[in-house]
Design a protein that fits this description.
The chain is α+β, with helices and mostly antiparallel strands. It has a domain at 116-279: 60s Ribosomal Protein L30, Chain: A, CATH 3.30.1330.60. It is 66% helix and 13% strand. The protein has 6 helices and 5 strands; from the N terminus they run αββααβαβαβα. The chain has helices at 2-134, 158-161, 171-184, 211-229, 254-260, 272-279, and strands at 143-148, 151-157, 190-197, 237-243, 262-269. The model has no long low-confidence stretch (mean pLDDT 83).
């Protein structure tokens, strides 16, 4: 019995020692468990916070994506407008260039026309001066010389050229026509028109049926003198009769009727250059 008591007392320190060790391990384990629990809660909180932050970031990202898409659409629209404006500007530029080209061509045509017209005016003036110089010595009631509409008109009265009621050119008339022929023969680029005119008094004879007949035959007689006697080219001379229908004065007075009885020689410089220039446009 005494032995058992001694054995119990001997093992008692070991028992308490073992209990103390187990308690210490328990505390450590418990501390670890609590730390683990705390750490897990922290991680969960962190994860929750991160998820919220991620959700916010994703929302912001989606918003930025939408804004970016709108910006890209806006840029494409602006680019389309710029391209459209550029095309329109290019078209306007091309149209402007075409108009400038047409304007330059028109200006050149006008310059050429002006040059041709100035040349024609110069020729008409020279021709007028030459005709006036050649036909000096005749009175105004025998013949007149004038320029009108780019042509030279020589009006010879019937008393200068013909006897009354006749279509035969007299000597004084032949002399006047000879002087005029000298001018005409020096011109190679003119047209000459011979117009016979009468007054309104009717005529009917064995030779002339009416004033038409008289005016035409008198014009033809002048043409024959100019071409057959003085060598004016038949290719540049044309006769016609006007009868009483183009008077220059009244037919109610003897003086007026005398002025209306005339033969007009119309000298017109050819307009070939002007015609060619106009038809080329």
């Amino acid at each position: 019995m005494k032995t058992l008591k001694l054995l119990f007392l001997a093992t008692l320190p070991f028992f308490f020692s073992s209990c103390l060790v187990t308690r210490k391990k328990y505390d450590i384990a418990e501390s670890g468990r609590l730390a683990a629990l705390f750490s897990r809660d922290s991680v969960n909180d962190l994860l929750s916070n991160n998820r919220a932050a991620y959700a916010n970031l994703e929302k912001l990202f989606n918003g930025l994506k939408q804004d970016t898409a709108q910006l890209r659409s806006g840029i494409r629209n602006y680019q389309s407008l710029l391209n459209a404006n550029k095309n329109e500007r290019d078209q306007l530029t091309n149209q402007l260039n075409d108009k400038l080209k047409e304007l330059n061509e028109s200006a050149e045509t006008i310059r050429q026309l002006r040059a041709v017209i100035d040349e024609q005016n110069s020729r008409v003036k020279s021709l007028l001066d030459n005709v006036k110089s050649a036909l000096t010595g005749f009175s105004s009631d025998e013949l007149t010389v004038r320029e009108e509409n780019g042509k030279v008109y020589v009006a010879m009265s019937d008393k200068l050229l013909f006897e009354s009621g006749s279509a035969t050119v007299n000597d004084l008339g032949k002399s006047a026509l000879g002087k005029l022929a000298n001018v005409l023969n020096r011109q190679t680029d003119i047209d000459v028109y011979i117009e016979g005119h009468t007054d309104s008094v009717p005529i009917k004879t064995a030779v002339f049926k009416d004033n038409w007949d008289l005016s035409v035959i008198r014009a033809t007689s002048v043409v024959r003198i100019l071409t057959e006697t003085y060598g004016v080219s038949p290719l540049q001379i044309q006769p016609c009769g006007r009868s009483e229908f183009k008077p220059v004065d009244t037919n109610k007075t003897p003086e007026g009727r005398a002025r209306n009885r005339r033969t007009e020689i119309i000298i017109a410089p050819k307009l070939d250059k002007l015609y060619d220039l106009i038809t080329a446009q």
